[in-house]
């Protein structure tokens, strides 16, 4: 906690002068380009990994980067917090992109894979049920990359399942169909620091190096025309 407190002081004394003007503008409004959905894991730091600044990302974090699917009426089957963030991002902020980002060595995915009934965490256990489809697919269809540890294989499949859950929300589906919203699946490898993007053509997560980044950017630009 001391590190956290002293970090606030360091920011106030050294960094805040650089951002003072930007914070002044952000106090009036925010116009983030993307809703970034990722895990609560302390090792995943979106602004650091994507070199973003205040106002760039509208971020939603929870255990396992999970999105409870919606009913046909658009009402969440789980916690309303996630559904509310999705609605706010799409309807109010009008983000053009939603990224679902999983990661390696995810404790939530380890718990889902282990299926440990002795955890004695009923709320967590109920929450993790939103990853059960990913576990089913891993068992019956196999991994995207069999070189990974089983829980990391599950983590990658879980990203794709959560994107499918996003598409159960009518407002998301409508915006995607209209070409106004793009859904992307990313996966962060903690050990190497590499970020991967799911590429449908290869049915795999590919490292976001400069070459892939330029292809992704060109693809987004062509959709925006």
TrEMBL record:
<dbReference type="InterPro" id="IPR015892">
    <property type="entry name" value="Carbonic_anhydrase_CS"/>
</dbReference>
<comment type="function">
    <text>Reversible hydration of carbon dioxide.</text>
</comment>
<keyword id="KW-0456">Lyase</keyword>
<feature type="binding site">
    <location>
        <position position="41"/>
    </location>
    <ligand>
        <name>Zn(2+)</name>
    </ligand>
</feature>
<feature type="binding site">
    <location>
        <position position="103"/>
    </location>
    <ligand>
        <name>Zn(2+)</name>
    </ligand>
</feature>
<dbReference type="GO" id="GO:0015976">
    <property type="term" value="P:carbon utilization"/>
</dbReference>
<dbReference type="InterPro" id="IPR001765">
    <property type="entry name" value="Carbonic_anhydrase"/>
</dbReference>
<protein>
    <recommendedName>
        <fullName>Carbonic anhydrase</fullName>
        <ecNumber>4.2.1.1</ecNumber>
    </recommendedName>
</protein>
<dbReference type="GO" id="GO:0008270">
    <property type="term" value="F:zinc ion binding"/>
</dbReference>
<feature type="binding site">
    <location>
        <position position="106"/>
    </location>
    <ligand>
        <name>Zn(2+)</name>
    </ligand>
</feature>
<feature type="binding site">
    <location>
        <position position="39"/>
    </location>
    <ligand>
        <name>Zn(2+)</name>
    </ligand>
</feature>
<dbReference type="GO" id="GO:0004089">
    <property type="term" value="F:carbonate dehydratase activity"/>
</dbReference>
<keyword id="KW-0862">Zinc</keyword>
<dbReference type="InterPro" id="IPR045066">
    <property type="entry name" value="Beta_CA_cladeB"/>
</dbReference>
<dbReference type="Pfam" id="PF00484">
    <property type="entry name" value="Pro_CA"/>
</dbReference>
<comment type="similarity">
    <text>Belongs to the beta-class carbonic anhydrase family.</text>
</comment>
<keyword id="KW-0479">Metal-binding</keyword>
<dbReference type="InterPro" id="IPR036874">
    <property type="entry name" value="Carbonic_anhydrase_sf"/>
</dbReference>
């Amino acid at each position: 906690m001391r590190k956290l407190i002293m970090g606030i002081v360091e920011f106030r004394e050294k960094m805040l002068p650089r951002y003072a003007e930007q914070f002044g503008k952000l106090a009036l409004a925010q116009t983030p380009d993307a809703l970034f959905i990722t895990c609560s894991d302390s090792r995943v730091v979106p602004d650091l990994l994507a070199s973003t600044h205040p106002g760039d990302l509208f971020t939603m974090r929870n255990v396992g980067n999970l999105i409870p699917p919606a009913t046909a009426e658009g009402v969440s089957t789980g916690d309303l917090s996630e559904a509310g963030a999705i609605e706010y991002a799409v309807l109010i902020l009008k983000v053009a992109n939603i990224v679902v980002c999983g990661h390696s060595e995810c404790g939530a995915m380890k718990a889902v894979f282990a299926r440990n009934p002795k955890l004695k965490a009923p709320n967590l256990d109920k929450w993790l049920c939103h990853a059960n489809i990913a576990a089913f697919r891993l068992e019956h269809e196999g991994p995207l990359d069999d070189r990974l540890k089983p829980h990391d294989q599950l983590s990658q499949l879980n990203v794709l399942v959560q994107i499918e859950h996003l598409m159960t929300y009518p407002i998301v589906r409508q915006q995607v169909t209209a070409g106004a919203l793009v859904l992307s699946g990313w996966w962060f490898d903690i050990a190497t620091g590499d970020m991967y993007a799911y590429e449908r053509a290869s049915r795999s997560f590919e490292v976001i190096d400069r070459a892939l980044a330029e292809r992704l950017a060109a693809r987004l630009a062509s959709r925006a025309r």
